[in-house]
């Protein structure tokens, strides 16, 4: 499909000749669906669709108690401090953004009256301005009205470096102005194709100015409301024991009619994923459990009880392996894996190609991740239109052997291949996590058969993902030959996600290994394509540029994608819930109900 | 006697077993996942179809070695500290007992994390991956379990050094060193060995608990504790997975404790009278 | 005696199961006890006397012992009674007291409670009644301030007082029969006299019978109407005490009697005299051999002790500061010549053992001087001291405890040689064999362990070990006190023989006056850390001057029923304690010389006769 | 008595100081970062993580941090949780009661099992009962608590559906139902912990009773005509308990260790699970405070053991 044809289709939708759903279906067939299709339509002046849960109850309340189990316990309730998903889930119960993402990547208004579009004048033609109309008659839990002041304040709060908000990235390069009490205008410095970041989803929850006003910047941690949230959400705060339990009660003044259904809400934390699944699927002690990183077999067995069901939704998260093309065992200027070095064998593309052939992605999916992930050869998989159609994976020990034979790597007496005295012996590192260790085992076995010896190493997650400069085991240091982890794609757009492939983000000693490009690999073509995509307002051209970045890295076999991860949750059979891979599980908790 | 036999069989099993059952511990066979015990896999398989008998025998080496080595560390350190405290008359004793109490209050887990972080690379360079982790775990488990031994040895020393035969040897002009090494220590060692036998089982359990908390051996090393931990989510369909390592730990603990009881009797001089 | 015995024991046998085999410890023992009669069961260790007593009460371990025969009490055979009925008998009809007063009382219960327990159980008394009765009983056994002491715990009582509590407990239900199992063995001789006196008195008051178990013929002579002699689990001779002492029929009885040291039997012998050798088959003694004078009077004394003082601090309080001091040894002075035996006598806590250990610097003395062959031991550094120790060796009370249970006796004997680097391994082996022969053991025993020997043999081994380095001086701390009479005699004889042969000087520490009389040349009597009287043996025993010396000698039981003493005033005086406050300054002591070498401490009230300053 | 207590207390102070110093050094040197979750999220700029480390003083030298911590502690300020952004003392106070309840009950259960069984077994050594009790004790301490915990869950929660396995601190029932619910959810953690401890305590009690049973005063008691029950309970048990108290006090660190795992399995919101989560999140102030509280509890329990010792044994004078 050419760019032109696409434009015609969008026009058809706009004129009503083609249904939204029809458009999305066609895009789907082209490998270019839902979330970004929605964005495409929005940019072309077509309103977003809605894939949220249809809400049946006819009045608010009467649903009794809703029990949610988060096996990682929430520890704080300020959405801008929320370091992990668990905290974002908890704070989202009380706070709301202007809009959230549904499971198909549609932008759904929450505190906004409508999603900005070209048609309603919310988006400017130059891609620099977004105007949000706010919902009227929204009240904070303490009865004060919600206004544009709160929105402007939230931006100031998060942008202040002294606040040290995790969301600060979304607010640093923008200007937020109050137009009137219920209108806010955002101005971007550059034309910004992906404008739905500030005030949207995880990063966008609005704080009440009258509670946080005095606690901006350095004093931020002293705010009493950090632990006793006053928001606009469907449930009001009752009690919170950090790391243990959070309770809420129905907000009678909630701004969506007839919502929420439940009278009380309890979020319990702690334990492990398997027993969380048990508590929902087997004993029914809880209604909902989240992030069930459990072997699918185990989940399936639990589901047979019939007390609950497992639900998976797509996300942009990707489990992948980096092959280090720099030398991790030689120190240059105080750092190992420096770009000034070359890996003795992994810098050979043939070796990397062979290793890629030794990964049995289908088995890994089938026997380990199940519904938790889909085997893939593309780094970006969601939204599907950013997924490369060109990249394919294959598992063939034979081919790998042949490639290595041809490249001159001969098996030594110990069965390990070598060339010029350099053995194909690698340290393969990942974090401690059962599926990852099993994946490591599977890959190790296949490599063994191709004469490659892997030493498996696993590091405690808190160390592996730490930013401690002194620690050699962090994933950004890459002091190993191969490493495997998952990286999160926070919004249904891969631009920011793909900064892992640009040369100026290479992690090194100078930037204290905080650079996003962990692989150290770079390609001027990728840099160029990425830069172009950042300014490209035409969604189709932009998608093509981003796909190019992805393909360069995957084809170089520096990045070996394994699985496109899904978000797995379990709910009681009678609970109607709505979770999304693009937003937190509680993003639409107001609409949950029991049948 | 029977217990010595059981322990001997276990030890022989993990030492000689891999020679008789030369199945690789990490041979993945998706067609035989969670297989129940059969001729092909006498102990069944785990969820990657890896042979549990082979894994048990391999892991047993490590579990038993951890148990005995940690016991050795705990008893040697405890005996040395307890002996010094028990022999010193005035100042050293309270200081050492203070240190002992201090160690009793130290948390194992952060300490283990620290040790792994500080020494892993150095130890790995010298002893290899498994050897390095092995040494760290042994040092941490043993290093945090010497205190009861030290107290025991000290109490033994305090009572033995007042015994007439010790005084008799002192009256002969024996040096303190000779007193301790030739006379007090051999007589104090009986209860220490009994305590040591208990340490073996405690260390095996401690290692498995560390695995549970994700701080033990690398996950691809199938110690008994690790196997038990991995099996826990599949108990309902594959109880054999947990049964064999569980039984192995139990038999080891049981036989070692019975041997300890036997040793206690054997070391009791009254018995012979 | 009477037609209706209180208790008649017929063919009582007791066997224990030891490693799956039954071993008979008491074989077919028969005797009777009449009303108000005291029967002594006498024998050496292992003769089965205590097991007999426990069997009567059926207190042997249920599962591993077997009692046969019959024990008739009040027409019932106790051995046939059901358990519950037997419990009714215990404590009510038969009561028992034991050897070790220190361990026979439950440390965590008040003595009042422990006495009242039997009253409540057998007499059905209420708490209050039982308490009142307990006070009465404590009064009866002469415990001062009984009302206030019933709530005290056992550790607040001395050994003698505890034995009184035990007696009160036994008497609680006015039993028909009291079994006393070595009730005075662990007590000091003056306390022993008090307790024996008390038992006799109470027996008369209450009209009960007593079965008195002892190894001490002196005590038997003192207390028993009739005597049963036990040997190897059998009753070898039964008769009235007078008959048995006058006309012993069984060779064992004869041997026992001739081995008993008798106080006063040494009058007229200037030097120590060995015990007579006894013919094992007839039990008749051979005439004693005199030993020539061994004392080297002309030479400088081997040991000169001057103003030796040893004190221990008692710590307590918030910062562990000293709160008081035990004045264990206070300005003790004496000397000892080659070939001479100086006996240090006194009761427990008098400081005699501390003196012995201070002389060897096994305990660090506070002040004073100790000259060994003219060299000041106190001034030596640790290394020199260790070296010098080979000139002085020590033999302890408990031969089992003083041998390392994990070392062969050969190694033990060779050890002093090894430590002092006096011999090569081969030489040491040879020397060991010679030493073993010397102390009357066979050299091939060197490979055995201590537990394979009897008590007497072990003490010989200890002596051999002490002799290995050819010392000048031997400190013998209660070295024969724990041995049976016959063995005791042999060991004493060995020591005398060695003294003669090797010119040894002995510092002989003992509480046993009869043995002391036989072995010593001179005697020093210690009381509360001080020497109250010192002098030639004949002087001390023949002409005791200090009141304490007299009391000590009077209290020794005489193994002759004909000379059974008249009743003493029933005293409850206890041994005084040597604990003093920190600011206590010991008074300057003065001594008067009664006769040459016989010095007596002058107490404040003593007549101001010829006085010599303590020098 | 008062002097004795005061003295013990004064001894505890340098101990606690020493413990705190060692703890702090250990934690300061230990690797990890409280902000790991931010690492793979491209939305969070690296500067934020750097700023946070600086803000919480993670990059300061160890001694500086220790002295700062000590000074704050002296003023009653326990620090500020990185993960929860609230005061640590608040966090701990919320959780201490639960831990004390679970540990306390499990210890009571352990003793309630160990005392009768240990005593009964020791009074009949080598009998069938003794052999069975011994074997069960070995089973008890050869199974790690995480495993028994899971077995219990499978049996009581999933198969039988009798007991909940998620411990809730916010049970909303009223009156007796509240107690009932609390009891129901506490049964399994208490049993798991209790059984594990009971196993080793039984062995202690048994050997201690065996030692006491052959002492003279027990024969004295029998000679008084007391029945076996009275002899055992009145004369043997109390004396036998004296060494058991010391052993139990020595076990306290192990008990707390076991509690950590048990709390994790049953989601008991005690300080044990707080420690685990803080450790996984590298929340140093919380780890520091919790381990310190554990250390204090250990010291406290030793103190209690000393008191108990004195109460059981009148020979110990507190002078």
From TrEMBL, chain A:
Entry keywords, A to Z: Membrane, Signal, Transmembrane, Transmembrane helix, Transport
Domain Solute-binding protein family residues, every copy: 107-504
Residues spanning the membrane: 27-49
Annotated GO biological process: peptide transport
Recorded GO MF terms: peptide transmembrane transporter activity
Subcellular location: Periplasm
Record-stated family: Belongs to the bacterial solute-binding protein 5 family.
Annotated protein name in UniProt: Peptide ABC transporter substrate-binding protein
Species in which this protein is naturally found: Enterovirga aerilata
From TrEMBL, chain C:
Entry's EC annotation: 7.4.2.10
GO-annotated cellular components: plasma membrane
Topological type in the membrane: Peripheral membrane protein
Keywords assigned by UniProt, alphabetized: ATP-binding, Cell inner membrane, Cell membrane, Hydrolase, Membrane, Nucleotide-binding, Repeat, Translocase, Transport
Hydrolase is among the record's keywords: yes
Chief localization: membrane
Alphabetical list of PANTHER family matching this protein: GLUTATHIONE IMPORT ATP-BINDING PROTEIN GSIA, TRANSPORT ATP-BINDING PROTEIN
Family: Belongs to the ABC transporter superfamily. Glutathione importer (TC 3.A.1.5.11) family.
Protein name per its UniProtKB record: Glutathione import ATP-binding protein GsiA
The organism of origin for this protein: Enterovirga aerilata
UniProtKB/TrEMBL annotation, chain D:
SUPFAM superfamilies (UniProt xref): MetI-like (SSF161098)
Source organism of this protein record: Enterovirga aerilata
Record GO biological process: transmembrane transport
A Pfam cross-reference name: BPD_transp_1_N
Compartments in which it is found: Cell membrane
Predominant subcellular localization, coarse grouping: membrane
Family (UniProt): Belongs to the binding-protein-dependent transport system permease family.
Sections of the chain in a coiled coil: none
UniProt cross-references to CDD domains, sorted A to Z: TM_PBP2
Topology within the bilayer: Multi-pass membrane protein
GO cellular component: plasma membrane
Residues spanning the membrane: 9-30, 98-123, 135-158, 186-205, 240-266, 286-312
Protein name (record): ABC transporter permease
Keywords: Cell membrane, Membrane, Transmembrane, Transmembrane helix, Transport
Classification via InterPro entries: BPD_transp_1_N, MetI-like, MetI-like_sf
Segments forming domain ABC transmembrane type-1: 96-305
């Amino acid at each position: 499909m050419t760019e032109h044809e696409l434009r015609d289709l969008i026009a058809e939708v706009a004129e009503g000749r083609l249904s939204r759903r029809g458009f999305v279906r066609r895009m789907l067939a082209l490998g270019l669906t839902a979330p970004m299709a929605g964005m495409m339509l929005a940019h072309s002046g077509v309103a977003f669709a809605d894939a949220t849960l249809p809400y049946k109850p006819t009045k608010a309340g009467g649903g009794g108690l809703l029990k949610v189990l988060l096996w990682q316990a929430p520890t704080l309730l300020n959405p801008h401090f929320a370091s992990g998903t668990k905290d974002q889930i908890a704070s989202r119960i009380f706070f709301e953004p202007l809009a959230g993402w549904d499971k198909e990547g549609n932008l759904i208004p929450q505190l906004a009256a409508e999603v900005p579009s070209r048609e309603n004048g919310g988006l400017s033609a130059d891609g620099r301005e977004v105007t949000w109309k706010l919902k009227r008659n929204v009240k904070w839990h303490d009865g004060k009205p919600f206004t544009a002041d709160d929105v402007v304040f939230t931006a100031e709060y998060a942008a202040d470096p002294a606040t040290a908000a995790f969301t600060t990235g979304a607010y640093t390069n923008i200007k937020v102005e109050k137009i009137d009490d219920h209108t806010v205008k955002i101005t971007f410095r550059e034309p910004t194709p992906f404008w739905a970041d500030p005030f949207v989803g995880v990063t966008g929850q609005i704080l009440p100015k009258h509670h946080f006003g005095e606690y901006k910047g350095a004093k931020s941690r002293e705010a009493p409301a950090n632990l006793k949230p006053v928001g606009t959400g469907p449930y009001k705060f009752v009690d919170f024991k950090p790391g243990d339990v959070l309770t809420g009660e129905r907000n009678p003044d909630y701004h969506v009619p007839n919502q929420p259904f439940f009278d009380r809400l309890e979020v319990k934390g702690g334990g492990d994923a398997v027993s969380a699944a048990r508590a929902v699927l087997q004993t029914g002690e809880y209604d909902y459990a989240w992030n069930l990183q459990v072997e699918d077999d185990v989940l399936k067995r639990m589901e047979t009880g019939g007390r609950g069901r497992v639900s998976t939704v797509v996300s942009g998260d990707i489990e992948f392996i980096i092959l280090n093309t720099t030398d991790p065992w030689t120190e240059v200027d105080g750092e190992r894996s420096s770009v000034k070095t070359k890996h003795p064998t992994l810098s050979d593309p043939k070796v990397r190609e062979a290793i890629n052939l030794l990964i049995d992605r289908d088995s890994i999916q089938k026997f380990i991740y199940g519904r938790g992930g889909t085997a893939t050869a593309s780094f970006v998989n969601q939204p599907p239109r950013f997924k490369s159609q060109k990249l394919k994976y294959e598992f063939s020990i034979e081919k790998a052997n042949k490639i290595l034979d041809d490249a001159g790597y001969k098996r030594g007496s110990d069965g390990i291949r070598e060339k010029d005295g350099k053995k194909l012996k690698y340290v393969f590192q990942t974090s401690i996590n059962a599926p990852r260790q099993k994946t490591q085992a599977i890959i190790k076995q296949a490599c063994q058969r191709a004469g490659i010896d892997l030493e498996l190493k696993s590091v405690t997650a808190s160390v592996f993902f730490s930013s401690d400069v002194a620690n050699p085991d962090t994933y950004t240091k890459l002091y190993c030959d191969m490493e495997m982890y998952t990286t999160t794609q926070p919004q249904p757009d891969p631009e920011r996600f793909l900064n892992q492939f640009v040369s100026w983000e290479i992690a090194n000693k100078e930037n204290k290994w905080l650079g996003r490009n962990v692989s150290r690999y770079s390609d001027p073509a990728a840099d160029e394509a990425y830069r172009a995509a950042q300014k490209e307002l035409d969604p189709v051209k932009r998608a093509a540029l981003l796909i190019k970045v992805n393909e360069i890295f995957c084809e170089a076999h520096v990045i070996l994608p394994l699985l496109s991860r899904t978000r797995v949750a379990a709910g009681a059979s009678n609970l109607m819930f709505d979770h999304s891979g693009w937003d937190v599980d509680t993003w639409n908790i107001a609409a949950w109900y029991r049948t | 006697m029977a217990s010595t036999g059981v322990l001997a069989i276990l030890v022989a099993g993990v030492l000689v077993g891999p020679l008789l059952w030369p199945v690789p511990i990490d041979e993945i066979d998706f067609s035989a996942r969670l297989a129940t015990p059969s001729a092909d896999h006498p102990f069944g398989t785990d969820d990657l179809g890896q042979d549990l008998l082979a894994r048990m025998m391999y892991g047993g080496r490590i579990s038993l070695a951890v148990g005995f080595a940690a016991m050795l560390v705990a008893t040697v350190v405890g005996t040395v500290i307890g002996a010094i405290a028990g022999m010193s008359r005035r100042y050293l004793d309270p200081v050492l007992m203070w240190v002992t109490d201090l160690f009793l209050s130290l948390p194992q887990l952060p300490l283990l994390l620290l040790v792994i972080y500080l020494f892993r690379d150095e130890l790995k360079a010298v002893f290899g991956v498994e050897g390095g982790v092995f040494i760290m775990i042994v040092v941490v488990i043993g290093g945090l379990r010497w205190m009861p031994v030290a107290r025991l040895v000290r109490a033994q020393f305090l009572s033995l050094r007042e015994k007439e035969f010790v005084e008799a040897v002192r009256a002969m002009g024996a040096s303190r060193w000779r007193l301790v090494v030739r006379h007090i220590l051999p007589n104090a060692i009986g209860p220490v060995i009994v305590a040591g036998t208990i340490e073996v089982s405690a260390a095996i359990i401690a290692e498995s608990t560390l695995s549970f908390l994700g701080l033990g051996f690398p996950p691809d090393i199938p110690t008994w504790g690790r196997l038990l931990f991995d099996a826990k989510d599949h108990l309902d369909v594959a109880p054999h997975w947990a049964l064999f390592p569980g039984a192995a730990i139990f038999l080891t603990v049981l036989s070692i404790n019975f041997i300890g009881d036997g040793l206690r009797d054997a070391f009791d001089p009254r018995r012979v009278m | 005696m009477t037609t209706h015995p209180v208790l008649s024991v017929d063919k009582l046998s007791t066997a224990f199961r030891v490693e799956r085999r039954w071993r008979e410890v008491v074989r077919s023992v028969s005797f009777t006890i009449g009303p108000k009669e005291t029967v002594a069961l006498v024998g050496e260790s292992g003769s089965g006397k205590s097991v007999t007593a426990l069997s009567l009460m059926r207190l042997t371990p249920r599962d591993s012992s077997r009692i046969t025969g019959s024990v008739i009490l009040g027409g019932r055979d106790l051995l046939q009674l059901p358990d519950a009925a037997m419990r009714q008998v215990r404590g009510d009809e038969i009561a028992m007291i034991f050897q070790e007063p220190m361990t026979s009382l439950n440390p965590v219960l008040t003595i009042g409670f422990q006495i009242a327990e039997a009253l409540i159980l057998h007499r059905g008394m209420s708490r209050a009644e039982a308490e009142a009765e307990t006070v009465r009983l404590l009064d009866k056994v002469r415990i001062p301030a009984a009302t206030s002491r019933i709530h005290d715990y056992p550790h607040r009582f001395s050994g003698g007082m505890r034995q009184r509590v035990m007696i009160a407990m036994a008497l609680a239900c006015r039993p028909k029969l009291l079994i006393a199992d070595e009730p005075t063995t662990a007590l000091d001789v003056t306390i022993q006299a008090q307790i024996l006196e008390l038992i006799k008195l109470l027996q008369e008051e209450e009209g009960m019978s007593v079965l008195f178990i002892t190894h001490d013929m002196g005590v038997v002579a003192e207390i028993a109407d009739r005597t049963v002699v036990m040997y190897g689990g059998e009753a070898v001779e039964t008769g009235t005490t007078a008959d048995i002492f006058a006309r012993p029929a069984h060779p064992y009885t004869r041997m026992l009697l001739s081995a008993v040291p008798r106080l006063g039997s040494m009058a007229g012998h200037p030097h120590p005299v060995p015990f007579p050798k006894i013919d094992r088959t007839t039990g008749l003694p051979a005439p004693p051999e005199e030993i020539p004078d061994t004392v080297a009077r002309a030479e400088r004394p081997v040991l000169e002790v001057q103003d030796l003082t040893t004190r221990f601090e008692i710590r307590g309080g918030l910062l562990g500061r000293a709160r008081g001091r035990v004045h264990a040894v206070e300005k003790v002075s004496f000397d000892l010549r080659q070939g001479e035996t100086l006996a240090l006598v006194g009761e427990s806590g008098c400081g005699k053992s501390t003196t012995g250990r201070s002389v060897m610097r096994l305990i660090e003395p506070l002040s004073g001087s100790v000259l060994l062959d003219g060299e000041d031991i106190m001034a030596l550094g640790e290394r020199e001291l260790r070296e010098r120790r080979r000139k002085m060796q020590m033999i302890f009370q408990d031969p089992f405890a003083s041998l390392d249970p994990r070392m062969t006796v050969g190694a033990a004997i060779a050890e002093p040689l090894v430590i002092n680097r006096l011999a090569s391994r081969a030489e040491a082996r040879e020397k060991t064999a010679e030493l073993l022969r010397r102390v009357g053991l066979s050299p091939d025993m060197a490979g055995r362990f201590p537990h394979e020997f009897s008590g007497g043999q072990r003490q010989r081994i200890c002596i051999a070990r002490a002799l290995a380095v050819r010392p000048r001086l031997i400190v013998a701390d209660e070295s024969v006190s724990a041995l049976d009479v016959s063995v005791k005699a042999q060991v004493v004889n060995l020591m005398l023989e060695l003294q003669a042969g090797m010119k040894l000087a002995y510092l002989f520490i003992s509480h046993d006056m009869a043995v002391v009389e036989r072995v010593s040349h001179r005697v020093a009597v210690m009381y509360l850390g001080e020497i109250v009287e010192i002098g030639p043996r004949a002087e001390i025993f023949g002409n005791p001057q200090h009141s304490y010396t007299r009391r000590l000698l009077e209290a020794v039981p005489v193994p002759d029923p004909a000379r059974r003493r008249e009743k003493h005033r029933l005293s409850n005086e206890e041994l005084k304690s040597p604990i003093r406050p920190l600011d206590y300054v010991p008074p300057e002591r003065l001594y008067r010389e009664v006769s040459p070498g016989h010095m007596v401490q002058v107490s404040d009230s003593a007549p101001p006769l010829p006085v010599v300053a303590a020098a | 008595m008062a002097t004795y207590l005061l003295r013990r207390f004064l001894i505890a102070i340098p101990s606690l100081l020493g413990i705190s110093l060692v703890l702090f050094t250990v934690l300061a040197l230990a690797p990890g970062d409280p902000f790991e979750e931010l690492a793979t999220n491209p939305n969070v700029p690296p500067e934020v993580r750097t700023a946070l480390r600086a803000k919480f003083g993670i990059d300061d030298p160890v001694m500086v941090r220790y002295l700062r911590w000590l000074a704050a502690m002296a003023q009653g300020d326990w620090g500020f949780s990185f993960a929860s952004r609230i005061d640590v003392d608040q966090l701990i106070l919320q959780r201490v009661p639960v831990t004390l309840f679970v540990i306390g009950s499990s210890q009571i259960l352990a003793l309630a099992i160990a005392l009768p069984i240990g005593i009964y077994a020791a009074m009949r050594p080598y009998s069938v009962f003794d052999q069975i009790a011994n074997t069960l004790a070995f089973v008890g301490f050869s199974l790690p608590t995480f495993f028994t915990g899971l077995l219990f869950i499978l049996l009581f929660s999933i198969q039988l559906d009798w007991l909940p396995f998620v411990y809730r601190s916010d049970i909303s029932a009223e009156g007796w139902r509240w107690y009932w619910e609390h009891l129901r959810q506490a049964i399994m953690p208490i049993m798991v912990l209790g059984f594990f401890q009971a196993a080793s305590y039984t062995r202690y009690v048994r050997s201690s009773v065996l030692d006491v049973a052959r002492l003279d005063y027990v024969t004295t008691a029998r000679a008084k005509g007391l029945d076996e029950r009275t002899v055992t309970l009145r004369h043997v048990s109390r004396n036998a308990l004296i060494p058991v108290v010391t052993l139990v006090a020595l076990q306290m660190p192990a008990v707390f260790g076991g509690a950590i795992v048990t709390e994790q399995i049953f989601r008991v919101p005690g300080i044990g699970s707080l420690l685990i989560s803080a450790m996984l999140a590298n929340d140093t102030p919380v780890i520091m405070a919790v381990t310190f509280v554990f250390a204090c509890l250990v010291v406290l329990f030793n103190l209690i053991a000393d008191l108990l010792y004195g109460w059981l044994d009148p020979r110990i004078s507190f002078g």
